[in-house]
Amino acid sequence: MMSLVSYLIISLILFIVGLVVIIARKNIVAILLGIELILNAAALNFVAYSRYVTNNLDGHVFSLFIIVIAAAESAIGLAIVIRFFQIKETIHIDEATQLRN
Amino acid sequence: MEYTVGNIAPIILSPVIAFVINAFFGSKLPRKGDWLATLSIFISFIFSARVFGDFVFGNFATDYFIHKTFTWFDLSYGANIWKVDMGIYIDNMTAIMLTMVSGVAFLIHLFSTWYMDHDEKHGRFFTFLPLFTSAMLGMVISDNLFSLFCFWEIMGFCSYSLIGIYVKKEKAGDASLKAFMTTRVGDVFLLLGIVALWMTLGSVAYVDIYAAIAEGKFAGQTVMGISLATFTALCIFLGAMGKSAQFPLHVWLPDAMMGPTPGSALIHAATMVTAGVWISLRMYPLMVLGDITWFIAVIGAITAFGAATVAMVQTDIKAVLAYSTLSQLGYMIIGVGVGSYNAAFMHVITHAVFKACLFLSAGSIIHSVHEQEMPKLGGLRKYMPYTHFAMMACTLAIAGIPFFSGFVSKDRILGDALYFGFMAGQNPLLAIVPILGFAGAGLTAFYMFRMMFLTFYGENRMGHHDSHGDHHGHGDHHGHEIHHEHLDARQNVPLLILSVFTLGVWFAGSLTGQGIVKVFGSKTEWFKILVEAPKVERFVNHPRESFGSTDARVKAELPKAVYVHQTGYAGPNPDEHKIHSAHVIGAILSIIIAFTGVFIAFLMYIKKSINPLASKFPGFTTTLENKYYFDNFYIDVIIKKGLLGLNRFLSWFDMGIFDRFAVDGWAAVNRVLFKASKWFDNVVVDAIGVDGTGVAVNLFNLVLRIVQSGKIQFYFIMLIVVLASYIWTVNI
Amino acid sequence: MIDQLFGFLSFYIPEVISILLMTTLLVAESSVKDEHAPRTKIHVYTQVVLGIVLITLFQNLGEKPVQIFHNAVTIDPFSTLMKIIMVIGTMGAVFISHSSKDIYSNLKSEFSIMAVGVLIGGMLLASANNMLTFYLGIETLSILSYVMSSLKREDASSTEAGMKYALYGGLSAGIALFGISHLYGVFGSIQFNDIVGQVAGLQGTDLAITLVASVLFFVGVGYKISVFPFHMWTPDVYQGSPIPVTAFFGIVPKMAGLAALVRISFVFLSAGSALTVSWVGLILVIAAMTMTVGNVTAIGQSSVKRMLAFSSIGHVGLMILGVVVMNEAGVKAILFYGLVYMFMTLIAFYITSHLSDMYGSDSYDVFRGLVYKHPVMAIIMAGVLFSLAGIPPFSGFVAKFNIFAVVIEQKHYGIAIVAAINSVIALYYYMKLAKTMIFGQASGEEKVVGFTSLNQAVIIALFIPVLFLGIFWESAMTMAGNAAIFIK
Amino acid sequence: MNGILNWILWLPVIGMVGVILTPKAKEHTIKMVTLVTTSITLLLSVLLYLKFDTTTADMQFVTKIPWISQFHINYFIGIDGITMLMAFLNALLFFICTLSSWTVTKNLKAYFALLLMLQSTVFGVFFALDFFLFYVYWEVMLLPMFFLIGIWGGENREYAAIKFFLYTFFGSIFMLVGIIALYYASGKGVDSFNILALQGGKFVNEQVVIFGKTFSFETIFFWFMFLGFAIKVPVFPFHTWLPHAHVQAPTAVSVILAGVLLKMGTYGFLRIAFPIFPQAAVNASTIIAVLGLISVIYGAFCAMAQDDVKKLVAYSSVSHMGFVMLGLAAMTTQGMNGAVLQMFNHGTSTAMMFLMIGVLYERSHHRWIVKPDGSKGYGGLATKLPKYTTIFIIGMFASLGLPGLSGFISEALIFLGIYQKFTTITVIAVVGLLIGAAYLLWMFKRMFFGEVNPEIEEYEDMNAREVFYMIPLCIAVIVFGIFPSPLLNVMKASVGQLVDLLSKY
Predict the structure, then answer these.
(1) Residue boundaries of the structural domains of chain C
(2) Which of B96, B185, B473, D151 is 20 to 30 A distant from B639 in Cα terms?
């Protein structure tokens, strides 16, 4: 029997995994994926809450918007990554250390 | 006569006017306006003489005085009233001093018109001399310590300018600086004393201070643990020491001879230097109350004797005279200390006359033969008879030979000193006061006659060098052929007039119509009738008078002056006879000593039967020639090493340390903070990030691995860490 | 239903016009044949339309607050005023971009398009009245910002800046969203109106969750206005981006973020609860840290652009103090500060941009001896710098004065002292630039091409309010005073 | 009638506009415009003095116009006895400085424009009775100073300018905090920015909590204000900007800086710090006195070590302003009056010194008494430049406090005042007088006596213009030395009122 808590736990795990990925991986695309994970964690929360706690559609709507925006964001992100690759010939994050005082 | 503004103001103002005119238009006036200065002094002499006549021939009681005030400025607001009054305080002493100062000043001005002729500084000299005179007169006539202090400082300024008048001479600069600063040391303390008195008594007018003493307002008052009376008395006497060049503040006076001789005659011999004695006399009751008279006496004795010893070896006429001045001032101070009030004052007057005369004579010698080194002079008697006559008279006077003025005053001082030292039951150590005093008297006679003999007697040594005087190295004195002095009235008349005053008048007995002429310092010289220590009781709540109001009492009501001898101010003295005997002994002693001194000098410098000291005690002589090394001590040790060293250190500290670290510190801190953030970015991030070494390694492997990956991710870590800490804090 | 919608639209005209503008611009750009042709017409068009937007906004300023689209959006004078500031900022940025060499000629209208897009996001954010619009606003703002900052395609640093911005923005948006989701769970609604009521009554786990979630939520705003822990992207992005973009970032997203911050703080904190205490403390710490970090780091900068970036962080630190006090006065102070700050930033970036176009660098040296070449420009720049430092009679002083006033009124003396010390530090680096400009000797006598009479006129025109608002700030303050926050 | 004050305040601004509008080439016109403006201002201030009512301590020539009604900020100006003197001094010095700046060539136009702006702002500081207005003028005054020092200064001018600016700003930003705190402490009322209304110890019982600690409102904000003013004076630990600023600044600016700007600090104590926080002021009087004493002695000692004559005079200013602080700390009739009088007299005498140094500098282009290589910088000036020497002597003896010249009476009054409260400090302070004479006379001896230094052979004596602008100061120094009443009568009511207030605590 799934309960709200289990959803929350899953989303939390997603969230943390996302953070770890963002922090630990050196591949920029992977980092973008990590961000996606975090967004999905949030979306999952919304749906779960609207299912168990608040019996209205706000959560569902919100999660839909999240999906859309996540797509847009990752699109832009990837575009920039491609430019980066064209310039630096790599998508290794450590190469992005040109800007500093 | 009425003491209205019109009668008093000219005494001070006419020289001031002369000063102003000469200061601005002197160069345009004929003869640079020296006649104007002289005239102005003459005017103030006339007005002083009126006061003198009114007091001295007017048969006033000894303690009659005029005290009139006007408000200088007023700070009263609402409830608290506070204003500063100025005014005149005239008693017999003031009258006599005024006349002496203006008279001597007039004669010296007259002489200077001859002496300063064709001198490049002619104009400037006659600008400052009248200003000085008016300041001196103002100091004499002023009724309170504050205005006295003002005039006192202005005198100091004039003396500064006149000493340094020959600006081209480096030494003139040193001398003037030294003179001003040394006296300034005393002056600041004087100011301090005045402030202390003013703020505790509410006024510094003489009459109020006397009244306060009588009413015992000083009782229980203390300043920093010392009783107020002692504190203020000491401060004021320190001021006196500065001005009157008492040991150890005496160093400036000999150097002050850099100025033109007549200037020295007026300022550094006759008048200004006696200002210290003057204020000590005015504040005598305070000195007694503060119980520092013994200190005063000792200081005086040391100065009197020490200066005399130094004077013995000087070869420059003016230097000899300068040291003799020091020594004579010492006697006056002794007089104050041992409580022979009127003798001390009398010595001020007599000394002023004969010392002025001596300086003028020296001046006329220097001006005529352009030489002031005694060993190079000699035999001038036949060339300058008038000068010789005048100088001899004054020398006899200063040496304390009977029938001359110096004898009267000095011998009474010594007599009182004798009583003070041996008979008054004081601390036996104080016996040094009379001992040094008498020794000094002998030396005085010796060195003065040494000077006379070297200068006027023996063969003329002009033209060829004398091994003795060489190291004083005054330019070249070849080719000054000796010529008879051409008789210039402006040169000789002042000398003769002054020399007349060295005798005669002082013995005229009572000019006030009682008693007859007596000799040997009899009790009833007119002088003693007129001057006595103030009786403080009679000043208690006497009426205030301001200008315009008529005098409180009419002369007719006043009793005739009756002379009561006394030492100190405290009424008739119990052991009268002791004092009298002391006087007799003193008189005889001083005569003997004086003649011995003269005789020794005669043997040394005329007979040549004894060779001069120098050959006998070379070491002692060099010490004397270096003036006991006081100058070296002050300048090399205290000033150069001490003061300037401290200054340099402080200023280095201020700019080098204080400014650099304490003040630019904040900027430094910011730079450090900036560096820190930079270091955070570069070192922490890169060092830990790039090469895995670093503290973090051993700390926490996971963290290391996490952090390993470059910059933007380090931002993420920061974000999350801070976020976690926020959440943590928020949840508490 | 429909007519009601149109009724709502009548309040929403500015946004609508902006959206139309954006779309039309897209069309216009696509119709340009020679891609290197100057986009003067397009820029003029943009300016004109934005001017119209401005006018409509000024009309809204008078209206009384309303909530439209089912309370998704609130139109109140506060948000309108913020929008006005943003629109002016956008106009200014577009104007720079026209002359700036930092924007490739073939991208000039792209810049305008993006700018208008970001503006729209900002408007949405400023008047967001529920979580969703808030999130949409932030994302619209961000996503376009990423593109703007990497607008110099061939330039490595620009691209890198864009990438960092994207990653950082994505992460913080995600975190904020995670927080929002929990808030939704706790309050059962995404409407601010519904939340306001419930905040006071929170307790137990709800309260605990809310505390954590609200902090997460704060990240979303915090990184937009780049306050202390979330500021790290700022210098890199500012440095990497083209100057017009930097100027734009200095104004529009910050204003939008501030508006949102003010609103949500009023939502969550107006009712005094455990939340209020923690938030006030949080913001005090954040403000102090932000000021200090911004100013201290600005001291050592050699690039003027970076210096301005850090100094803007410092200013934000000062501005958010207006939030702490939770009252009208605070909002007033923030609005006034924002208005003034917008003008000052624009001028500073104008002059910097023209100089760096001329010399190909924005180091302090290019300013050396400017007063001997362009006395007026140099004096105005100096005036702006002193205004930023908060010296009377410039408006920067009044802005700072207001912030101090509201802080001290609430007896937060400690933070006031911190702010005081910070303004001394700030004065130091502003003065260093003024020094180089006016005391230094110019290497050459050549005039700066950028300073055409038009540009100079615009700069002077922008300087007038900087000076005027410093002396006669009564009217501006009343205007800001009327801009009340409206939440049911 | 009240118009006069506004005219004095705004006339320089009008003049500044005139200067700005004059084309750069017409240098003589620019100078004349400035000269005319300053001279009219001077005449107006004389008129002001004549119309001034010395019997009352109230503000006179008051103008009050609402400015920012939300904060009850007014354009509120007026003068009492103290500011009357300061205004006169300011007008006089700027008139003289215009003449002394006649030889300026670099960016002439900007120079005179800034000079006039500076004059107006300084007037503003002295006239302002509204706290906000006061602060605005206090800060605006920094800008022209910053540029005047920074552009026309010596070789190390940038450092000096920045230091001056930052230092003062550091002090005044705390003052701002204090001002706002006062505004709320006094209940945001109509008079909450009105300096006069705030006076009289209204905040004795207030409390403040800073970083979790509770303090007395008065104490904390007295020290905030103290910081602002003490840096301006400058009192001992905050004095090090002064030598830099003075040495680097051009002559006219040094004159204004020493002559007027330093007085703004002490004026702040008289008008703001003391009357608004009497309790705290009385508690702090010992500390102020000690700091003043240190400034006196320390400044004098440092001055004596200087080889740069301008730096020497700069340190002497520290010393003399220390006397003013002593007088203020005394809080007695004599002390306070003496302090205010000293403010005026120091203004004139030190202005003379700086002007004379400037005159010399125009001839020699260095200021070394003893050059770094140990050779004499000058020497024999007295022989070469008689007029110069005469005027220099007057200025020098005025500033070392010779009776009959202005410096003495104020110092004597200060001593009388301070003695009643702090005997020991008085005793130590007289050393200051001693050293004060020492460094000046020693400097004089090294520069003016002795054989004529070959370097100064071709110097010509002061020309008519230079003599002309020195004359007013000489007259002021001598006349007010002999008759101080014209000054004392003007100030004594206002000062007396303050003394009465302080004596209650």
Answers:
(1) 294-488
(2) B473
Contact residues on chain C for D177, CB-CB shorter than 8 A: 404, 408, 413, 416-417, 420
Does the beta-carbon distance from D403 to B172 stay under 8 Å?
no
The percentage of residues in chain B with a pLDDT greater than 90, rounded to a whole number, is: 14
Over the stretch B286-318, which tens digit does the pLDDT of each residue have?
Answer: 988 888 888 999 999 999 998 888 888 888 888
pLDDT of residue B574: 60
- Contact predicate B112/B125, CB 8 Å: yes
- The helix/strand/coil state of C475 is helix
Together in a domain, B620 and B670: no
Positive or negative, the Cα torsion across D476, D481, D483, D488? Answer: positive
Q: Does C478 touch chain D (CB under 8 A)?
A: yes
Of B226-230, C232-236, C289-293, D257-261, the poorest mean pLDDT is in C232-236
Q: Under a CB-based contact definition with an 8 Å cutoff, are residues B527 and B419 in contact?
A: no
Domains defined along chain A, listed by start: 4-95 (1.10.287.3510)
Q: Which helix (H) or strand (E) holds D39?
A: helix D27-51
Report DSSP letters for chain A, one per residue. ---HHHHHHHHHHHHHHHHHHHHH--BHHHHHHHHHHHHHHHHHHHHHHHHHT--SSHHHHHHHHHHHHHHHHHHHHHHHHHHHHHHHS--BGGG------
The conformation of residue C363, written as its DSSP 8-state character, comes to B
CB contact under 8 A, B716 and A94: no
User: Which element (helix H / strand E) includes D303?
Assistant: helix D278-305
Q: For residue B208, tell me if it sits in a domain.
A: no
Interface check for D450 against chain B (CB to CB < 8 A): the answer is yes
Q: Please state at what angle helix C77-99 crosses helix C453-471, rounded to 10 degrees.
A: 150
- Do the beta carbons of residue C405 and residue C333 sit within 8 Å? yes
Contact between C439 and D157 using a beta-carbon 8 Å cutoff? yes
What pLDDT score does B235 carry? 92
d(CA C191, CA C73): 10
Owner of token pair 């920094």: D142
Q: What is the DSSP letter of C441?
A: P
Q: Which residue has the tokens 């049911």?
A: C488
Contact of chains D and A by CB distance (3 or more pairs under 8 angstroms)? no
**Average pLDDT taken over every residue of chain D:** 90
C363 touches chain A (CB under 8 A): no
pLDDT digits (tens, 9 = 90+) for D276-294: 999 999 999 999 999 999 9
CA–CA gap between residue D291 and residue D235 (Å, rounded): 7
pLDDT of A19-73, one tens digit each? 888 887 878 888 889 999 999 999 999 999 888 887 788 889 999 999 999 999 9
**B196 contacts D403? CB cut-off 8 A:** no
Q: Domain total for chain B?
A: 2
Identify which of C136, C164, C200, C354 has the alpha carbon closest to the alpha carbon of residue B710: C164
Q: Do B578 and B710 fall into the same domain?
A: no
Classify strands D73-79 and D60-68 as parallel, antiparallel or unpaired. Answer: antiparallel
Is pLDDT at B568 greater than 50 in this prediction? Answer: no
Q: Cα C69 from chain centroid?
A: 26
Q: How far apart are CA D241 and CA A15, in angstroms?
A: 57
Could you tell me if B591 and B697 lie in one domain? no
Taking each helix axis from N to C end, the angle separating B405-418 and B576-602, rounded to the nearest 10 degrees, works out to 120
Give me the amino acid identity at D323: F
What count of other Cβ atoms lies within 10 Å of the Cβ of residue D52? 19
Domain that holds residue B369: 292-507+574-625
Question: Mapping DSSP to helix (H, G, I), strand (E, B) and coil, where does residue D308 land?
Answer: strand
Chains contacting chain A through 3 or more C-beta pairs under 8 A = B, C
Of B595, B625, B655, the domain-final residue: B625
ipTM for the predicted complex: 0.86
Cα(D199)–Cα(D210) distance, rounded to whole angstroms? 24
